[in-house]
């Protein structure tokens, strides 16, 4: 599927102070519940250089999906609820933005 048709979800997650390493470990442990979904095209975890006033870490999770309806189906599934429950103890806040990828430039490597 061309990248220009992907539906992208970007989560900003604020992780409680001192819990970043544990969050990263659990995220990797439960990541299969997302990337093995047939509609998922891939997922990335990034830690920002940003830190909140109370010392919390900020992470961004980006995932691409074949379509918005396919993502919304996953978002309301038991599979996603279980995934979220395992990550919830580490979070102190967050937000979600959705978008459509309109172009992708490949280096050709």
The number of E-state strands comes to 4
CATH architectural designation:
2-Layer Sandwich
Shape: globular
**How are the strands ordered across the major sheet?**
2-3-1-4
- Between the first and last Cα atoms, what is the distance in angstroms? 19 Å
Low-confidence stretches: none
Strand content: 35-45%
How much is the radius of gyration in Å? 15 Å
The biggest sheet amounts to:
4 strands, antiparallel
- Our count of domains comes out at 1
> Which bin fits the share of residues in helices?
25-40%
* Helix/strand structural class: alpha+beta
| Mean pLDDT rating | 91
Order of helix and strand elements from N to C terminus: EHHEEHHE
- CATH fold category name: Alpha-Beta Plaits
**Could you name the CATH class?**
Alpha Beta
- Quaternary state reads single chain
- The number of helices is 4
Protein architecture, described:
The protein has one domain (3-100): 2-Layer Sandwich (Alpha-Beta Plaits). Helices cover 30% and strands 37% of the residues. The chain has 4 helices and 4 strands; from the N terminus they run E-H-H-E-E-H-H-E. A 4-stranded antiparallel sheet has the order 2-3-1-4. The mean pLDDT is 91.
Question: Characteristics of this structure?
Answer:
globular; four-stranded antiparallel sheet; 37% strand; 109 residues; Alpha-Beta Plaits; single chain; alpha+beta
